[in-house]
Specification:
Length: 382
């Protein structure tokens, strides 16, 4: 049997044709496919603006720059996320502060975040990076209220959750990255995610000012608008220090084709999750879905006592699970700059037990049953 990875892209003939047709077109980069992808993505998540970038990591970097984060500024996030969610703060010399997760949803805990904020004078923190971990949308309405009290911005790291949503207190569907409660949303198009571009990312926002800043920073800080001088049609100005964080037209063509299938993919992911839950209920702890949330299910995480043993047992059976995530403050780089085991009990306990089982739309029912049976077999003897 071929190994079953925890995540996998799904590429069909339409995707291949979209890429080939762009390869045969006039533009491999900086052409019409980028704009088309941005427009369709903004529409899909319900945001005013979208800016395509070459990775979500680049997107996070531009997001903190666009929000004016500077050396020494402090930002709160969860330790249970990919390192990139925190690293963007370090890129500009900022300090990362961790609040704990909720032990059932595994999302950044509102109360722990409030406690951290209230333990310091007002103005101490600049913002919050809230993560839709595993595809479960975080309640940004509640975080916005807290952020407004303390003048904080919010970046929603929605890398795991395109198409996920929660229903707010007014009964309105709030799709991840729609920018209604967060200032900026970030998505990733790495192949294990919902929409695969090889590498790629998208930044969404409802602020025209932030949008313009992102567009400038994505391409070296170069502009042809509002120039101090104009010496002719060729002329441009580099008005600030930016980067080359552009997504190509080839990747955008693939992204457009993948986006068109995202709804189907989400339905399949939710079917897979429902099946895992039906077999594991009462036997194994898994991520709890708060009421009125639609989980985009990038991951399906379980918690078990003999995690390492189960990981090795499944690997022997060609089932390649993964750990999401090693808490960020445990990573050697963060330890080196002074982070230690902290009072983050739920995060640290979660890390001892968590394991992500295979979750991707093309997972065959027979393969899923094989995985479920192996997990249950293991539990019987351990
Ligand atoms: C939560 C989260 N944020 C950010 C990223 C970074 O995404 P990328 O690989 O597109 O830079 C990832 C990627 O795994 C992620 O899972």
């Amino acid at each position: 049997m071929k190994p079953i990875n925890y995540g996998r892209q799904y590429i069909d003939q339409d995707d291949i044709e979209a890429v080939v047709s762009t390869l045969q077109s006039d533009y491999l980069t900086q052409g019409p496919k980028v704009k088309e992808f941005e427009t369709k993505f903004a529409e899909y998540v319900g945001a005013e603006y979208a800016v395509a970038v070459n990775t979500a990591t680049a997107g996070l970097h531009l997001a903190v720059l666009a929000l004016g984060l500077k050396e020494g500024d402090r930002v709160i996030t969860t330790p249970i996320t990919f390192a990139a969610s925190a690293n963007c703060v370090r890129y500009v010399g900022g300090e990362v502060w961790f609040a704990d997760i909720d032990k059932n949803s595994y999302l950044l805990c509102l109360e722990s975040t409030r406690e951290l904020i209230e333990s310091k004078p007002k103005g101490f923190f600049k913002g919050i990076i809230a993560v839709d971990f595993a595809g479960l949308p975080i309640d940004l309405e509640a975080f916005r209220e807290l952020a407004n009290e303390y003048d904080l911005w919010i970046i929603e790291d929605a890398c795991h959750a395109p198409g996920g949503y929660f229903i707010d207190s007014k009964g309105v569907v709030q799709k991840c990255g729609n920018g209604n409660y967060a200032d900026i949303g970030i998505f990733s198009f790495h192949p294990v995610k919902h929409i695969a571009c090889g590498e790629g990312g998208m930044i969404t926002t409802n602020s025209k000012k932030i949008y313009k800043k992102l567009i400038s920073l994505r391409t070296h800080g170069i502009t042809k608008e509002n120039m101090n001088e104009n010496h002719g049609g060729w002329f441009y100005e580099m008005q600030e220090l930016g980067y080359n964080y552009r997504l190509t037209d080839i990747q955008s063509a693939l992204g457009i084709s993948q986006l068109a299938k995202n709804k189907e993919g989400l339905e399949r992911r939710n079917e897979i999750a429902a099946k895992y839950k039906s077999y594991f209920k009462g036997k194994i702890k898994f991520q709890e879905l708060p009421k009125d949330h639609y989980n985009a299910h990038h991951l399906f995480v379980i918690e078990v006592n003999n995690r390492k043993k189960l990981y090795d047992f499944l690997k022997k059976n060609n089932i390649l699970t993964q750990i999401h995530y090693i808490p960020i403050h445990y990573l050697p780089y963060y330890k080196k700059i002074g982070y230690k085991e902290a009072n983050l009990n739920s995060s640290e306990n979660y890390y001892k037990k968590c394991l992500s089982l295979p979750m991707f739309p093309s997972l065959k029912p027979k393969e899923q049953l094989f995985i479920i049976n192996k997990v249950l077999d293991f539990l019987k003897i351990n």
